[in-house]
């Protein structure tokens, strides 16, 4: 007999079962898939917030905004997912498919990558 990976109860049923119930299966998988520590959770929350801000300000796929407006909404310039350097020497910072690039006078161009 095998025991449930979550609660340790004896498993009745198929030979390859790992859990005694759907509840135990869900609880086990939730534990295994959650962010492992506060650092990861905090970073993911900042990335989500930045992405949400860019999405709200860039509804047409390309727009401009000011640094002041981004900061007033809580944007954190230290958190992004990747950097794209173009052949012309421009540097875009991306949060998944939403990106931004510094222009003159603390203005930013916001872009969205086509998937």
Biggest sheet architecture: 5 strands, antiparallel
Task: Return the structural class.
Answer: alpha+beta
Order of helices and strands: HHEHEEEE
Strand order of the largest sheet: 1-5-4-3-2
Average pLDDT for all residues? 93
Low-confidence stretches: none
Q: What share of the residues does DSSP label as strand, in percent?
A: 15-25%
Number of helices: 3
How far apart lie the N and C ends?
Answer: 49 Å
Number of extended strands:
5
Overall spatial form: elongated
Protein name: DUF2116 family Zn-ribbon domain-containing protein
Structural features, described:
With 115 residues, the protein is α+β, with helices and mostly antiparallel strands. The protein has helices at residues 22-33, 38-57, 67-72, and strands spanning 62-66, 82-85, 91-95, 98-102, 107-112. A five-stranded antiparallel sheet has the order 1-5-4-3-2. This is DUF2116 family Zn-ribbon domain-containing protein.
Task: Label this structure with key terms.
22% strand, five-stranded antiparallel beta sheet, DUF2116 family Zn-ribbon domain-containing protein, 115 residues, elongated, alpha+beta
Summarize the structure.
The chain is an alpha+beta fold. The chain has three helices and five strands; from the N terminus they run ααβαββββ. The protein has helices at residues 22-33, 38-57, 67-72, and strands at 62-66, 82-85, 91-95, 98-102, 107-112.
Give the helix/strand layout:
Layout: H1 22-33, H2 38-57, E1 62-66, H3 67-72, E2 82-85, E3 91-95, E4 98-102, E5 107-112
Antiparallel strand pairs: 1-5, 2-3, 3-4, 4-5
């Amino acid at each position: 007999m095998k025991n449930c990976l979550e609660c340790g109860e004896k498993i009745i049923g198929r030979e390859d079962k790992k859990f005694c119930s759907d509840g135990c299966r869900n609880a086990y998988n939730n534990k295994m898939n959650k962010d492992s520590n506060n650092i990861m959770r905090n970073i993911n929350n900042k990335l989500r917030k930045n992405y949400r801000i860019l999405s709200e300000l860039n509804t047409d796929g390309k727009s401009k905004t000011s640094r002041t407006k981004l900061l007033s909404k809580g944007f954190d310039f230290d958190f992004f997912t990747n950097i794209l350097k173009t052949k012309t020497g421009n540097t875009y910072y991306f949060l998944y498919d939403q990106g931004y690039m510094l222009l003159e006078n603390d203005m930013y161009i916001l872009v969205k990558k086509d998937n």
